[in-house]
């Protein structure tokens, strides 16, 4: 059935989806699954990554980006990009004259400014996403799915535009920062997805991030995605018993306790993604997207 005739998904109308979470919870796989799902619904998706170690390409089964745009499937493009490189490109674009821009970029004053200005490089990453969806970049997309840094740095990333706008104020950078801050703060345009595991520490960090988002960015997340949830033990297996069955029961009980803790404090949309047998790669992304779609459809207001 054509995407326009299916139930609308949460996140489907957003121009930017930022995926973050505690390190090791599978946020990169969740970001890839969201991109895969939205592309399947007919949206042109840019999957954006800032980690120089590059892992998204392995999930998508394509070559590494290395700063270049990579075709990662129907309606999906992958880009690994450095926030510093984005800022340098802005300088080149504004100065126009090659010799002048090279002199500025090589200047110690510029270097100190870039490294010392709080939130500036992080803001440029969000700024690039905004330009892409508004047709002001070399490449276009309907939605950018950003595989953001882990929770602490991811929160700093989301708070960066407002910080830069307050510090710099007027001028081109201040104006740009205020524009990006409005974009991030608008739940109709920007969706924030927090990824967790059904374990005590990831849940605690997720709840702390939810509180911090409200304090520093002025909004809650769009969604909490709990990844790699151990399924309930089948009745037949429970009757067999044994060490493996006992371990399964222990892990499921721990997962239930962590999920109860999450639900007591977080009343917003939550999706549970199953523990998968697939190896790290395209098959895992497809399976995650299949598990995610019906739950997102239920969570749409």
Q: How would you sum up the global shape?
A: elongated
Count of strand segments: 8
State which percent range the strand residues make up: 5-15%
- The CATH class designation is Alpha Beta
Order the strands across the largest sheet as they lie in space. Answer: 3-4-2-5-1-6-7-8
CATH topology: Rossmann fold
- CATH architecture identity: 3-Layer(aba) Sandwich
Which class best fits the helix and strand makeup?
alpha/beta
The number of helical segments is 12
> Radius of gyration in whole Å, from Cα?
21 Å
Write down the overall mean pLDDT: 88
Low-confidence stretches: 1-6
How many structural units, i.e. domains? Answer: 1
Order of helices and strands: EHEHEEHHHHEHHEHEHHEH
Mind telling me the CATH superfamily name?
Answer: P-loop containing nucleotide triphosphate hydrolases
Describe this structure in a few short sentences:
The protein is an alpha/beta fold. It is 53% helix and 14% strand. It has twelve helices and eight strands.
Write the SSE topology.
Layout: E1 16-21, H1 27-40, E2 45-49, H2 56-60, E3 70-71, E4 76-80, H3 83-95, H4 98-105, H5 108-116, H6 120-133, E5 143-147, H7 151-168, H8 171-185, E6 190-197, H9 200-216, E7 223-229, H10 235-240, H11 243-265, E8 270-274, H12 282-299
Parallel strand pairs: 1-5, 1-6, 2-4, 2-5, 6-7, 7-8
Antiparallel strand pairs: 3-4
């Amino acid at each position: 059935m054509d995407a326009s005739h299916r139930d609308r998904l949460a996140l489907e109308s957003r121009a930017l989806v930022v995926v973050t979470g505690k390190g090791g919870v599978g946020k990169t796989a969740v970001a890839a699954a969201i991109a895969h799902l939205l592309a399947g619904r007919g949206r042109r998706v840019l999957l954006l990554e800032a980690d120089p170690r590059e892992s998204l390409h392995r999930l998508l089964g394509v070559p590494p980006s290395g700063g270049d745009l990579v075709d990662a499937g129907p309606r999906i493009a992958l880009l690994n990009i450095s926030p510093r490189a984005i800022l340098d490109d802005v300088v080149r674009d504004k100065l126009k004259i090659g010799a002048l821009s090279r002199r500025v970029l090589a200047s110690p004053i510029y270097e100190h400014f870039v490294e010392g200005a709080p939130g500036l490089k992080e803001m440029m990453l969000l700024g690039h996403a905004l330009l892409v969806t508004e047709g002001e970049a070399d490449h276009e997309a309907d939605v950018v799915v950003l595989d953001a840094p882990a929770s602490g740095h991811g929160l700093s990333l989301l708070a960066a535009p407002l910080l830069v706008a307050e510090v710099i104020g007027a001028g081109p950078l201040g104006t740009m920062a205020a524009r990006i801050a409005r974009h991030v703060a608008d739940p109709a345009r920007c969706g924030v997805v927090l990824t967790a595991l059904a374990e005590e520490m990831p849940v605690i960090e997720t709840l702390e991030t939810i509180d911090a988002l409200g304090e520093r960015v002025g909004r809650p997340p769009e969604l909490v995605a709990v990844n790699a949830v151990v399924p309930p033990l089948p009745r037949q297996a429970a009757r067999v018993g044994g060490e493996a069955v006992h371990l399964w029961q222990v892990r499921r009980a721990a997962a239930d306790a962590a999920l109860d803790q999450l639900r007591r404090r977080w009343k917003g949309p939550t999706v549970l993604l199953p523990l998968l047998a697939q190896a790290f790669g395209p098959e895992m992304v497809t399976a995650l997207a299949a598990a995610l779609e019906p739950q997102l459809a239920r969570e749409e207001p």
